Amino acid sequence: EAQVTQNPRYLITVTGKKLTVTCSQNMNHEYMSWYRQDPGLGLRQIYYSMNVEVTDKGDVPEGYKVSRKEKRNFPLILESPSPNQTSLYFCASSSTGPRGHQPQHFGDGTRLSIL
Amino acid sequence: AQTVTQSQPEMSVQEAETVTLSCTYDTSENNYYLFWYKQPPSRQMILVIRQEAYKQQNATENRFSVNFQKAAKSFSLKISDSQLGDTAMYFCAFISGNQFYFGTGTSLTVIP
């Protein structure tokens, strides 16, 4: 089954404690992306990756890091989390072939609370 | 700057009726793709419909259709024969270059 898997689904942690949210896709997609969703603000792109070892900042990259060492994985790293990073996070992937950007497939979301 | 505006934070519609959700966007690009996504209470993001900017024909998927006005930078979603399962948050989005932009969403409630 084609899917984007992100873990954990829920996490409560404290300020300053490094954390990683993993994301894996099994569709051989080139493009992967992270978003945060906040009430009244919709989804905002944090980082995206066009392919292995190629990452770019989205609209709200401050306080986040990503890596793309393998095509299937795109972890989101919060080196020193702060309460303003409490949010719902989505990972997504899509194909970028000759027909252009295809619709993104989304993971089920990670609810992150930082105290 | 690229922006997406959904001016209707909340809407409601009677079951079996038709409703239109509005979306406008701003971009200086000429080639881009537009999407509507649905997010039910389960939080999943589900693709509803996709439109390629270079295509003049409006996209249609069963009960869902769009009214794409490129010159006006408008991309509205029409839902016909509304069903209770259509109750969800709807997001308009577009990709320009390699970056995705989403609107703030419209919360749609279908009333039995």
Secondary-structure element sequence of chain A? Answer: EEEEEEEEEEE
Q: Percent of residues of chain A in helical segments?
A: under 10%
Largest β sheet strand count, sense and barrel closure of chain A: 7 strands, mixed
Number of helices of chain B: 0
The chain-level mean pLDDT of chain A equals 94
Number of strands of chain B: 12
Q: Please report the number of helical segments of chain A.
A: 0
The interface involving the most residues is between: A-B, 25 and 21 residues
Q: How would you explain this protein's 3D organization?
A:
The complex is a heterodimer of chains A (115) and B (112). Chain A is built from no helices and eleven strands. Chain A has 115 residues and is mostly beta strands. In chain A, strands 2, 4, 5, 6, 9, 10 and 11 form a seven-stranded mixed beta sheet that branches. Chain A has a four-stranded antiparallel beta sheet with strand order 1-3-8-7, with no helix packed on it. Chain B is built from no helices and twelve strands. Chain B is globular and about 40 Å long. The mean pLDDT of chain B is 92. In chain B, β10 and β11 (99-102) form a beta hairpin. In chain B, strands 2, 5, 6, 10, 11 and 12 form a six-stranded mixed beta sheet that branches. In chain B, strands 3-9-8-7 form a four-stranded antiparallel beta sheet, with no helix packed on it. In chain B, strands 1-4 form a two-stranded antiparallel sheet. The chains are: A mainly beta (115), B mainly beta (112). Chain A binds chain B through residues 31, 33, 35, 40-45, 48, 50, 56, 58-59, 88, 90, 92, 96, 100-101, 103-104, 106, 108-109, and chain B through 4, 6, 33, 35, 43-45, 47, 50, 52, 91, 93, 95, 98-105.
